[in-house]
Amino acid sequence: MIVWLASYPKSGNTLLRSMLSAYLFSNDGNYFFGLIKNIKQFPHGGLFMKLGIDIKDHNETIKNYVKVQETFNKKNSVQFLKTHSYLFNFNKQYPFTNFNNSLGVIYIVRDPRNIVSSFAKFRNTTIENAAEFMIKSSGDGFTWTNTWSDNFNSWKIFKEYKRYMLIKYEDLIQNPELIFLNVLKFIYKLNNTKFELDKKKFDNVIKTTSFDFMQKLEKKIGFGEATIDEKTGEKIPFFNLGPKNNWKKSLDLKIRNRLEKAFKKEMEELGYL
Is the pLDDT of residue 108 over 60? Predict the structure, then answer.
């Protein structure tokens, strides 16, 4: 069964995946970038190509989402998948997922006023374009993120079945020990498994997945998920500002007002306004 790690882009998904992969897929909890490969992204072209599905045909890809997910459940164990997609039902016939495949979701949310500059840097575009994408875009043709608010709201359906955990990026940064402990308890509860904390491993996870640690590691050996600057051909640092990104100091007032107007309801719900 799948546990989804869902979020809008640049919201802390990589941090949570790093922490989980270090705790669940290492012997001692010490993180290195290779561990994150244990938590795959969905949708991912390779998963569809293995089943002979043409990923250039977006409609055909969407129609086979559930079929691809069923291959995970053959492993008879909890499988983690990262996604930036919103939870949709294509033509009311082809859902993104279903409860036969999905055990639950951990949704990571971040203040959109801080996302926008990070997203602009990641996509190598202007903050104005990034804000436009967050407010109006449905996605990039393969991953259907939809708007920031639609992405956040869509996954709440899991809440009705008590299979939903919401994490704020800001809390994960400020209090990683408490938030990550709660994440582990949630996962074990979903799987009806007794939870016993490996304290030494847990402490190593916290130490080696801090933003500063991973930023230094990227500078030293690079990070596979970093994007390429089309003009220079160089990689754009993935771990850029992180917790140092402060919209109050850097965000243009017009962009701030536009985001706050578009996402007022959700930002008030989350305590961002």
Answer: yes
Residue 111 pLDDT grade (very low, low, confident, very high; cuts 50, 70, 90): very high
The angle subtended at Cα 95 by Cα 93 and Cα 96, nearest 5°, is: 155
Secondary element (H or E) of residue 58 = helix 58-63
Secondary structure class of 74 (helix, strand, coil): coil
- As a whole number of angstroms, the distance between CA 240 and CA 203 comes to 24
* Domain architecture of the chain: domains with CATH: 2-270 (3.40.50.300)
The two structure tokens encoding residue 223: 């990070």
Residue with the two structure tokens 């104005």: 128
CA dist., res. 190 & res. 212, Å (int): 32
Residue 81 carries which side chain, given as an amino acid letter?
L
Question: Who wins on pLDDT, 258 or 71?
Answer: 258
Contact 25, 38 (CB under 8 A): yes
pTM (global) more than 0.70: yes
Residue 114 — pLDDT band, cuts 50, 70, 90? very high
CB 3 within 8 A of CB 78: yes
Cβ atoms of 119 and 130 closer than 8 Å: yes
